[in-house]
Every structure is written in C-alpha cells, then in structure tokens.
Amino acid sequence: MRFLCLYKPAKKEGVPPSQHEMAEMGKLIDEMTKAGVLLATEGCQPSSKGARVRLSGGRITVTDGPFTETKELVAGFAMIKVKSKDEAIEWTRRFLNVAGDGESEIREVHEASDFAP
Predict the structure, then answer these.
(1) Of 4, 9, 2, 21, whose CA–CA distance to 74 is shortest?
(2) Per residue in 50-65, pLDDT tens?
(3) CA-CA distance, 95 to 24, in Å (whole number)?
(4) At 45, phi and psi to the nearest 5?
(5) What is the pLDDT of residues 12-51, one digit of tens each?
(6) Is 116 domain-assigned?
(7) Residue 11 and residue 67: Cα distance in Å, rounded?
(8) In CATH, what number is assigned to the domain containing residue 93?
(9) Cβ count within 10 A of residue 87
C-alpha cells in the first residue's frame, strides 16, 4: 500500500528548520529509506512563490501566492510504501515528533489493480 503524507506545520510559513531539526529529520529519512518505506519526500517553497489554479463554471482563474490560510498550507510531502494504514500512521507519528507541531494528512494512493475489470 502506498500513502501520500501531506505535512501542514503549525509554525509560520517560510521559517527554516534549525540545524538540529535538519539532523534529526535526516536520521529519520535515512531510517525510512533503509527500511524500504520511503519512496520520495520533499519540502515545498513558500506559497508566495506559488499559485492556485481553479476551474469553476468552465472558467480558469489563477491566483498568485502568498496564501493567508496558513493552517491549510502544505509545507512538504512524503510518499511511503507500507503494509497497512496503521503502519502509515506510526511512521507519520514519528515524523511529527521530529518536525514539530502541525498535522499530516495521509491518503492511500490508488494502485492499477484498483481499476482492473
């Protein structure tokens, strides 16, 4: 099972992690990689460098960042491969203990077999 984990920090957007936080996250990433769990992970640039693209009523609108609802901003993601949702939750708990206050939404990703006839 693959899960997409979206991280939404409680701290202000654009505040870089400390050297200690970077070192601790590096250790966790290394452990997850060695365990064969981590498929990909990246942090996101501040929303001031982004845009939102919306389709409504056949019309596309583009809104440049920054975005004000910081509690809903995704600061990074991880794609993990685990045996169960419970295992995904456990890895996410460990991630949050390193990353700090905030939340992670985990969503199972469709597999090709989900659409087999």
Answers:
(1) 9
(2) 999 999 999 999 999 9
(3) 10
(4) -65, 160
(5) 887 888 899 999 999 999 999 999 999 999 999 999 999 9
(6) no
(7) 15
(8) 3.30.70.1060
(9) 15
